[in-house]
Amino acid sequence: MPRKTVIIGGGAAGLGSAGGVKAADPEADVVVYTQYEDVAYSPCGIPYVHGGEIPDFERLFLAGKQAYVDAGIDVHYETEVTAIDTAAKTVTVTGEGVVPYDNLIIATGWNYADPGVPGGDLGGLYYVKNIRKAMEWDKVISETKSAVVVEAGPLGLEMVTALAHRGVETHLIDPSPYALSMMADPDIMAPVEESWRELGVHLHFNTTLEAFIGGSDGLGDADGKVRAVRTSGGEIAADLVVISTHKTPENTLAKAAGIKLGSTGGMIVDERMKTSAPNVWGAGDVVEIPHGLTRTPLQGLTGSHAYAQGKTAGTNAGGGDRTYRAVYVPWGTPAGKWVIGGASFGEATATALGIPYVKGEAQGISRARYYPDVQPVKVKLLAEPGTLRLIGAQMVGGGEGIKERADFLAQAIRFGMTLHDLSTMENVYSPAIGALNEPIVVAATNGVASARSAGGARIETARKA
Amino acid sequence: MPRKTVIIGGGAAGLGSAGGVKAADPEADVVVYTQYEDVAYSPCGIPYVHGGEIPDFERLFLAGKQAYVDAGIDVHYETEVTAIDTAAKTVTVTGEGVVPYDNLIIATGWNYADPGVPGGDLGGLYYVKNIRKAMEWDKVISETKSAVVVEAGPLGLEMVTALAHRGVETHLIDPSPYALSMMADPDIMAPVEESWRELGVHLHFNTTLEAFIGGSDGLGDADGKVRAVRTSGGEIAADLVVISTHKTPENTLAKAAGIKLGSTGGMIVDERMKTSAPNVWGAGDVVEIPHGLTRTPLQGLTGSHAYAQGKTAGTNAGGGDRTYRAVYVPWGTPAGKWVIGGASFGEATATALGIPYVKGEAQGISRARYYPDVQPVKVKLLAEPGTLRLIGAQMVGGGEGIKERADFLAQAIRFGMTLHDLSTMENVYSPAIGALNEPIVVAATNGVASARSAGGARIETARKA
């Protein structure tokens, strides 16, 4: 009899898991439960449809439902799993009752952190996530005059740019002194913030959200819709509020089932993506994964991570053998008119964690200086004092090669490459596609020189900014 | 008294050397001899001015002559060095007589290999190299109806595309069965060749040049100008012939001075770029450098290599300490409407050298599938059977990230990364700049699967194509 794997969640982690099970055990009985009407679309594309870069939502669908049927994956749409019993090896499903499994993969994803202020039940508060809702909200954006984006996380960045491109008067509020402060350094974000100002965006940093304020219907009664937000810096009028607070793991089922959670609230998994419960695996934003250098647990990584974790969980649930390692977190995203990216951590995080570092920086270029459309590429490398082993990197540039450099630098950190190794790296020189001096090489060379000339005196001391 | 370093050659290697000496020993007396009117321009940009991508030749100049004066580098323009006496530590210079040195750096560069056929003294034969001549030739191109490019090397590729963009009827002749056969594989070049045909280029492969044929002045006398080339496949009419035979080291002076040359004709240097003669260093296209894996000597690398070698030679000549290693040769260039690139070697070279390999290929994309202007990125990885250590890579794509991937893959080869390591690499996923699945990761994953499923049976046997 085929073994039955139940997967809770139809996102990148859930579907990566389903594929992993089928690859390891083509006879396996694979059931995916999702509370949504769809699977296999790319939620990451939603802000770019709002911004007009992508012409319609239909493009975000990657495969038709039939493709899963054909692959022998049984997706139950708009179906909720309400409980897990790891001893009985069953899940309770609305409308289906108690369903047994041989193996279970929990890929329940994430939610936005509750803003925790009054007025959260008003209309006009947009949590970007589901594509069907996004289609409705897109019509709302067309009617919107003024919007507030709450918190400058990755999605907040994208939505600020998207709303500005749509001609909406856009305000960004964030309690930190600069945007994307949980990942990026202020020098990397400065040009991004400048480009938002050029787009007419109003930036409110060091500003805390205090309440959503509702409007009235003109007769003195509340109309149930947001008309403004109250902040530590005053009131800001808004027809629409996009809430992009940080991601929290959707761990309700896991917690109730007694599965061990870590400090982030994400499930703790081993290298095979196995949870603390027998026959239960996890993948995606509901698990936490250690950082490769600091071993700090991380949660809320990218769709690419979720998919790879799913593949690992599914392969192992299907009887195969695959491991997933600690992460070095290459990242990148358009922001304003620039593209930013990096790997591991930057100065702000190193400082917060008390990690000493030496620094090599370069303001380089993406093509020959004289070639049309050459773009700036700023590279900043952080290395361990003494060994000069790379421990982090951040970049900002016009876009060319930022993603590929981030991938490379994450792998360089994983392999223990030093600034010496990067300063002696060969690079392609061809005027239309690469400059004589690769910016990474220049940054590494500067880092080596800085470490040498200062005899260690330029090691940045770990201090709060 | 300051030590005097004489540098022969004003290209990337020569000027990199001059900078290296000054960095190591700011008091050094540095004299650069060049037979040309200029230094510090980018010859690599010339084909792109001819093609119209770069609007004028003036942009190719990187620094004014004053910049070298200011840096304390004494450049003697239009000056020829006619002999070296390594025992007496002197050079003989036209117009200056016998000039003593403490250290000598030979950076005399390269020449095109002599086509070795009759008619080589006719007008209308263009050897792309010097910028002043290129300015004159650009006017000739404007008047040209039909051109032949001789040999499909890196410069030939660029000139074919440039001439086609200028509306010239362009023919490419090459004795090999496909373009760039000394570096690239046929499957990588196939889309390039197709795009040339779309541009109206006539491709003549397996075709040998036999003679340049002169025209007559209408009265029956020879006019001294080329009117056609004779080939093994017949005669091709041409007002202009661009000769891009392979680069040979300009070793006349070195050879006469008894400096040890290698099998390529390039000077043999150690890791500090020191030649066999006391106090004599070398850099750039006049030296040969071993390939990092095969130890085969390579000659005629890029301007980026020449510059780095010059820096090394200059630093050591100036009393510093810097090493230059064996090379893994990342390369890349636009070709037709595509960009091609790679690192180390491809299947054709592996086969010719009798090196066995397993292969991982992927047809990937540069952005999310649904994001506008997404480009194809084909990646092919070669690995050592058994260990699956990466030994080579080739790519063809729309352009995005080809250069940065080539840099990365060369460094991955240097660091002994395996297909397993690359298949478990993290990657940035952000719709506008990177796809869910990085093409390198997919290619590596396919390579691992292929090696595993075949149990080694799919190891490509080394055979002549």
Identify the notable features of this structure and list them briefly.
homodimer, 465 residues, FAD/NAD(P)-binding domain, 3 domains, five-stranded parallel beta sheet, 12 helices, 26% helix, disordered C terminus
Summary, kept brief:
With 465 residues, chain A is of the alpha/beta class. The termini of chain A are far apart.
What does this 3D model show about the protein?
Chain A is of the alpha/beta class and 465 residues long. Chain A folds into three domains: 4-111 and 247-317, FAD/NAD(P)-binding domain; 125-243, FAD/NAD(P)-binding domain, CATH 3.50.50.60; 331-454, 3-Layer(bba) Sandwich (FAD/NAD(P)-binding domain). Chain A is built from twelve helices and 26 strands. Chain A has helices spanning 12-24, 46-50, 65-70, 131-143, 154-165, 186-198, 252-256, 303-317, 347-353, 402-414, 419-423, 439-454; strands at 4-8, 29-33, 73-76, 81-85, 90-93, 97-100, 103-106, 110-112, 125-126, 146-150, 169-173, 202-204, 209-216, 222-231, 234-237, 240-243, 247-249, 267-268, 280-282, 287-290, 297-298, 331-335, 338-344, 358-365, 376-383, 390-397. In chain A, the strands form seven sheets. Chain A has a five-stranded parallel beta sheet. Chain A has a five-stranded parallel beta sheet with strand order 9-16-10-11-12, covered by helices on one side. In chain A, strand 22 and strand 23 (338-344) form a beta hairpin. In chain A, helix 1 (12-24) runs parallel beside helix 8.
Low-confidence stretches of chain A: 461-465
Major sheet attributes of chain A: 5 strands, parallel
CATH superfamily of the largest domain in chain A: FAD/NAD(P)-binding domain
What proportion of the residues of chain A is helical, as a percent range? 25-40%
